[in-house]
Design a protein that fits this description.
This protein is mainly alpha-helical. The protein has one domain: TIM Barrel (Alpha-Beta Barrel). A three-stranded parallel sheet has the order 1-2-3, with no helix packed on it. The longest helix has 17 residues. The N and C termini lie far apart (51 Å).
């Protein structure tokens, strides 16, 4: 039996490169797709995984691109509180955003207004597509059928180079060493 495509998920970059080197040296199939958590809220993926994916020629299939339900406008937050709808409680009972998530969502709202995007999630998705444009494999999933129509409608928005400059000012990329 010959394996044609191999995916690895949430592994450190050194494990992937070591495994791919071993596979090449032994006539085995190396990994061709890397799947990991990446969003504007958690940019640690950009430090090791993006350079490794470029070096190894891997496609990317990021998950959590929309912040696992933590990226939404202040108006949505107010509506959820008033209606009692809440948000995602899959990862814990606290569905409300922390101060950093609020700050990032507000910045995404500003960018959405300036760039003409229909929502903050459209900007969050466009961010990942903009940064990882050379090796991504878009997989976008929602928790209900409502999201599929929503994504089709909002995936027409793309960031230009000018629009993408705001992301480094937000400092969501954690430093290597705590200061």
């Amino acid at each position: 039996m010959h394996l044609f495509n191999c995916l690895i998920k949430d592994a450190p970059a050194w494990v992937v490169t070591s495994a791919n080197q071993w596979a090449r040296c032994n006539g085995k199939t190396p990994f061709v797709i890397y799947q990991g958590n990446w969003s504007i809220l958690d940019r640690s993926f950009e430090r090791d995984i993006l350079p490794m994916a470029r070096s190894e020629g891997l496609a990317l299939a990021p998950w959590g691109v929309l912040g696992q339900g933590r990226i939404y406008s202040d108006a949505d937050a107010k509506r959820r509180k008033e209606s009692g709808e809440k948000g995602r409680t899959m990862y814990g009972p606290d569905w409300e955003r922390n101060p950093n998530e609020v700050k990032v969502s507000q910045k995404l709202e500003e960018v959405a207004k300036e760039a003409g995007a229909k929502s903050v999630t459209a900007v969050a998705l466009a961010y990942v597509m903009h940064v990882g444009y050379f090796y991504r494999h878009e997989l976008v999933f929602g928790i209900s059928d409502r999201f599929h129509g929503y994504f089709r409608k909002h995936l027409t928005f793309f960031l230009s180079s000018e629009d993408g400059k705001w992301n480094n000012s937000m400092r969501t990329l954690k430093p290597w060493i705590s200061v």
